[in-house]
Amino acid sequence: MAHRRKRAEHDNHERWLISYADFITLLFAFFVVMYSISSVNEGKYKTFSDSLSIAFSSQPNSTASSLTPNQQENVLKTLVDRRTARLGEQQRKIQERMKLLAEKLSQVMQSLIEQEQVSVKQTKRGVLVDINASSLFKPGEASLQPSAVEVLRQVATVLSQETQLLEVEGHTDDLPISTKLFPSNWELSAARASSVVRMLVEHGVDAQRLSAVGMASNHPLVPNDSPENRAKNRRVSITLLTTDAEHAASAVVASPLP
């Protein structure tokens, strides 16, 4: 009996298609799952929906898929205008609140303001209170005088009702100092700022809102060319920061060193 020849086997060069199809199927399933668990920002969706309603108020049968370039521009402009108006309203409320706070502090420190020992004003950074050092400390010292404690207590009563950050800066004139406690104006200005911070904390101001900085003679109000001007430059500045300034200060603190 003749032996039957074995049929020659051919390699299947399209076997990779099976693995490829499985991979595509799994990838599709992955994106379907990711899409299904994603959440929709309802606030932004509602804003966009309201803007579309305004843009298409004269064309109730229009759909988003038929947006013309002009309509897209109108929708974007509406969104931008609403955001700008909302931010403007928030800024206006902040400024009104800071103005009211400045008025309260002015009332509390009215006697010292009349004596030109204190000034209260609004700046871009917030409400600034400059207190002449002579009403707080003896020359060359950083311990608060008893007469200053009552004034700072009243200031603390107002500030404790707020939530914004507070910066306390100590300033000196340009005359050098060299004592056992204060080798330079840096140490003196920092110690004076710390004394004021400690007093505010003792009278109800949250310590986490406060920071104390010694500026020495680097930020004078007027030139240090006379005894009167040097007296004006020796001061402690208390700044109640606005929201924007708070964010900037927090960013500086949180940023890593190079």
Structural notes for this entry:
The protein is an alpha+beta fold and 258 residues long. The protein has a domain at 94-254: OmpA-like domain (60s Ribosomal Protein L30, Chain: A). It has eight helices and five strands, in the order ααααββαβαβαβα. The chain has helices at residues 16-37, 42-55, 69-108, 110-114, 146-159, 185-202, 227-233, 243-254; strands at residues 118-122, 126-132, 166-171, 210-214, 235-241. Strands 1-2-5-3-4 form a five-stranded mixed sheet.
Q: How many H/I helices? A: 8
What is the CATH-assigned architecture of one domain? 2-Layer Sandwich
Number of strands: 5
Instruction: Give the C-level CATH assignment of one domain.
Output: Alpha Beta
- As a whole number of angstroms, the C-alpha radius of gyration is 34 Å
Strand content: 5-15%
